[in-house]
Design goal:
The protein is α/β, with parallel strands linked by helices. The protein has helices at 17-26, 41-46, 83-109, 116-122, 129-138, 145-153, 168-177, 194-206, 221-234, 266-277; strands at residues 2-6, 31-34, 54-65, 68-76, 166-167, 181-184, 211-216, 237-241, 252-253, 257-258. Strands 1, 2, 3, 4, 5, 6, 7 and 8 form an eight-stranded mixed sheet that branches. Strands 9-10 form a two-stranded antiparallel sheet. The structure holds adenosine monophosphate (AMP) and manganese (II) ion (3 copies).
Amino acid sequence: MIDLHTHTTASDGTVPPPDLIREALELRLEALAITDHDNMTGYDEAAPLAGDLELIAGIELSTKFGGKSVHLLGYFFAGPPTLEFRLWLRKQQENRKDRNRRLIARLNSLGIDVTLAEVESRGGIQTGRPHFARVLVEKGYVQTSQQAFDDYLDESAKGYVDREEVQLEEGIELIANAGGMPVIAHPVRIKRDPGELTTAIVRMKEMGLQGIEVYHSDHSPADVVLFQRLAARLELHVTGGSDYHGTVKARVKLGTGYDGNLHIPRSVLDELRAAVSR
Ligand code: AMP
Ligand code: MN
Ligand code: MN
Ligand code: MN
């Protein structure tokens, strides 16, 4: 069993990197990729602790495609990314801080009493919208994190403020130039219509996309079959992961997803490695 999509406290997961390694070893995972949003400090902290576990450096970038937010995974099978990429990631942190300040102002203007210090104390290295959601729950403005997103924080909600995100094409180039494999995350969230999705993925492949996340906790068995076929037809590599976030998405388990709906064969990683070494 392997899991190539996980988050730690370095982004919006609740499990610190050393604990994630421990959980993976206890589960006897053969390989784990840490794919925190927009930073690699979780991977850096976990790397010396991996022991027998095959740990892969990964990233999940938020990008824009057709005006909408699309997540792009990057996998660094041959070793961590270039310094240039690291510096670019650092710049994204500023960008996020600026967004967070504007998000506070927006929420305040909607009559919500919340401060930057409050949300930052829930976040670690990188404070994101899930940390805002937690504060809104704790202060009783909403009942659940999901309600915080639905009412205030989602792209379509009244509290949303935009963040400067790279275009998908630029994200693909950044990852490839850093020595990584760019892979589209949870394609089920892009388009529901198979025809439209195919058109979108064809366009992404033209941009340099190399892989598609076929296995994901949110994918139904029918989705998996559809994405398998799409990967074969478009000659894209196949990846998969749970998108584990710890207790913020408590039903998603490391390695096995929702109620064991995820089975990522070891051969997925073997094929990725073989492709990279060719
Ligand atoms: P940020 O990167 O700070 O903009 O926060 C994005 C994160 O918020 C995503 O990775 C998800 O974990 C979460 N998120 C975004 N939209 C929603 C939504 N509509 N419902 C629940 N969680 C969401
Ligand atoms: Mn997340
Ligand atoms: Mn994602
Ligand atoms: Mn993710």
